[in-house]
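An instance noted here:
***
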Amino acid sequence: MCAAVTCVAAVALVAAHAAAPESAAIARLHAAFTPENRTYARVREAIALIAPLWAIAAAYALVASGWSARLRDVARRAARGRWARVLVYTALAGAIVGLAQLPLAAFGDWWWERRYGLSVQTFPAWLGEQLTGAAIAWLALGASGVLALALRVVERAGRRAWWWLACGALPLIAAAVLLGPWVVEPAFNRFRPLGDAALARRIVALAERSGIPARKVLVADRSRQTRTVNAYVSGLGPSQRIVLWDTTLERLDPDAIVFVTGHEIGHARLGHLPKGVVVAWLGACALLAAALPIVRIAIARRGGRWGVTSAADEAALPLYAAVLGALLLVTQPAACAWSRSIEHEADAYALQLTGLDAAAVRTFVAFAAEDRSDPDPPAWLRALLWTHPALVERVRFAEAWRGRAERR
């Protein structure tokens, strides 16, 4: 029955509740968004808007300056064979682009978070995680041979290359989601079973009702990195699991934790991760179909000046990154809208599964206070950046759900 909850019913509930006066919970949300928190949130939002543009500019500058061609020449002198050349080239180019992005990342992800008391990491610890992430990306794309094979496809398949690349993208996306909990997540955190026996029994009961194996509910030691609260579901098939941050266990009451777990169970039960793989693949098809002609045209017009010989040249890789990054920005509102829709479905599932509407309201108010987030951002900002419904919307929905339960 839980899986039958639809977005249409959810919208109707919110619309019916919209005419009512704002509740005490909504007032607390607005009160929690102090001038200090507003400053924090606005700077974070500005960074989120600037960072992808900065990354696109850094990748394009590497090509347009001729440095990409120079790095390609170094790679060709140092290694033989396309795979080895790509391996060397991506290490050099990735280091340069990473250094160009480091100041903004250090300011936004480390210093600004430390200043407002949300991060507990030292700079060396934060930098170590950035290097770990870069190494994983390099191994996944360069050392695995994915990029070398992609360039060979571009070289041999001509105008149909986007289709062959898109066909190869599906198993890659699925493998990334499948292996993430086993390979990537342990590189940053340690995981343990839920220790609170009473809370574990409640979560086991929820999981059993939803057909989700309770052994897959784990706790991550995120308190080593942050004071914020969160939870997530990751993996695919045998690797799928629900993860609660230990900060969430410390700062939320048991009912709120059960609701949060119910939300993540909703993602698993409603198949949002497999659906996400399909949506990501369809997006990859569209992006590749658009990106390849743009790259070919750009190289035909300016390749001689840049030192890039063809679309299959290793030196063209940053150009692909810049073009794909720009196209991702264009499609980001659609991706965010889809993400908000499935997050709303998970809220509805958790409310129906647990019946803890009051705990849901407390949870959303706690999110605003603990994470210093804007509970009611402007509509244009929601469209561009928000992957979850605004906290004001989530509180109104939970309160509307309570009203329906009372009428029953």
User: Anything to note?
Assistant: The mean pLDDT is 91. Residues 224 and 345 are 31 Å apart (CA to CA). The first strand starts at residue 191 and ends at 193. Residues 25-189+269-407 form one domain.
